[in-house]
Design brief:
This is CNTN4 protein. The protein is mainly beta and 201 residues long. Helix content is 0%, strand content 49%.
């Protein structure tokens, strides 16, 4: 006689509630298939003469989708810049980086690790448009951000040059001069209008 057909999951889990079974045609329909729906399924056919089981593995695949993107950065010369991008997908996406459309390779000050990019001692030549690329065999996605490198002239607004009074002749005086500047400035000292030269003292 025509067999009756039923469906089950071989791992013992319940069939998804959203699954629809069409008994007459032996069809199992799973709308909006998600990762938790993946697994080994069994179709059981039986009549008064016996039963038979057919198994099929349903595997979930997904193209990459961003969970963390990169954003524009403004950095002063000699600062350190770090970006990190993350994407979900199945199989797990791999990452690569581009600068102004050209592949970016790890070298010297530039370090790449998975979805992370670090540039140490930023220089003006590092300015440009960067892209993080996440891909698997089902798709590729891009995230873009611009690195702007700025120079800062010496700023003494937060530096205090103290007036020092010697209490003891022959004592030592230290005057610190640490302005905010990028790139790092060169220094010279004057006493009055005369440039100080280094000597024994």
């Amino acid at each position: 006689p025509v067999p009756t057909i039923s469906w089950r999951r071989a791992d013992g889990k319940q069939l998804p509630r959203k699954a629809r079974r069409h008994r007459s045609s032996g069809l199992l329909e799973i709308p909006n298939f998600q990762q938790e729906d993946a697994g080994l399924y069994e179709c059981v056919a039986e009549n008064v003469r016996g039963r038979n089981v057919a198994r099929g593995q349903l595997t979930f695949y997904a193209q990459p989708s961003w969970t963390q993107q990169i954003r524009d950065v403004r950095a002063a010369i000699e600062e350190r810049v770090s970006w990190e991008c993350r994407a979900s997908g199945r199989p797990k996406p791999s990452y690569r980086w581009l600068k102004d459309g050209e592949p970016l390779l790890p070298q010297g000050r530039v370090q790449l690790e998975q979805g992370s990019l670090t540039i140490a001692n930023v220089s003006l030549s590092d300015a440009g448009m960067y892209q993080c690329v996440a891909e698997n065999r089902h798709g590729v996605i891009f995230a873009s951000a611009e690195l702007s490198v700025i120079a800062i002239g010496p700023d003494f607004s937060k530096t205090l040059l103290k007036k020092l009074t010697l209490v003891k002749v022959g004592g030592e005086v230290i005057i610190e001069c640490k302005p905010k500047a990028s790139p790092r400035p060169t220094y010279s000292w004057k006493k009055g209008k005369d440039i100080l030269r280094e000597n024994d003292r």
